[in-house]
């Protein structure tokens, strides 16, 4: 089972490689990837250095080119594919069928992984991508129960990668409209949820307000820790009560499910968080490296250690974790 870790800069990439990541995924400094934030990602030269460093330390590098091109920007997505192939990455993570077709035709030797942004949740969809573009792996959206993941693994024509840890939101990957509603931009098209240019922090007598354009997201009292200014995790007044009406900030943590995922034949565990810090990736990779090695060596006696759970809780959104849809009791 492969451990796939995020890197938003060279420091994070080095930390991931040095602490046991089997593969590290990165993006370029433009809207061709779904973490297009200021200060994140790699220019051509930096990306080449990142690939060289990772390979020297036994890690593979995947490049996320997983947004949906707008008609006026197609050449940027072509260039991203060309650059990734030129610097010797090990796989591309792609969602759009036009980008998949371009990459498959021009670089047939280069491995293609279907991005979670492709939002494929059944074997028939995966078979289509495998037959048309020869994808070798698919990242599964965080909306399936454990039983559904097992059934999909039985029928899938390609290897499956699932999310193991990281922040959650209400987005069904590839289909979020909340950020678009408030700002006109979303991860799917422009690479960023709640883009920084739309965020406003306003001091008022009632507290610090966070706004996305003119949409009031939340209000924080003096000394209260402010949350990330996104629509889905704001607190809103509904029927006279102010609370997290859509979703409370939390992070997915599937350490306890590792034996089931391993038995189901899941090939890779993905860690979320290219926008996080080097300290975050160091702590998370250490825990998951130890957990996967422990599970693979003896799955029958495996149990998630309390110190692992505490370490992950410390870097989780809202300092709390959940099994999310994996533990969903309904169908």
UniProtKB/TrEMBL annotation:
GO terms for molecular function: 4 iron, 4 sulfur cluster binding; metal ion binding; peptidase activity. One of its GO terms (biological process) is ubiquinone biosynthetic process. It holds the Pfam family Peptidase_U32. [4Fe-4S] cluster binds at residues 169, 176, 193, 232. Keywords: 4Fe-4S, Hydrolase, Iron, Iron-sulfur, Metal-binding, Protease, Ubiquinone biosynthesis. The keyword Ion transport does not apply. Signal peptide: none annotated. InterPro entries: Peptidase_U32 (IPR001539), RNA/ubiquinone_mod_enzymes (IPR051454), UbiU (IPR043692). Its cofactor is [4Fe-4S] cluster. Pathway: Cofactor biosynthesis; ubiquinone biosynthesis. Forms a heterodimer with UbiV. Belongs to the peptidase U32 family. UbiU subfamily. Required for O(2)-independent ubiquinone (coenzyme Q) biosynthesis. Together with UbiV, is essential for the C6-hydroxylation reaction in the oxygen-independent ubiquinone biosynthesis pathway. PANTHER family: PEPTIDASE U32 FAMILY (PTHR30217), UBIQUINONE BIOSYNTHESIS PROTEIN UBIU (PTHR30217:SF3). This is Ubiquinone biosynthesis protein UbiU. It comes from Methylophaga nitratireducenticrescens. The gene is ubiU.
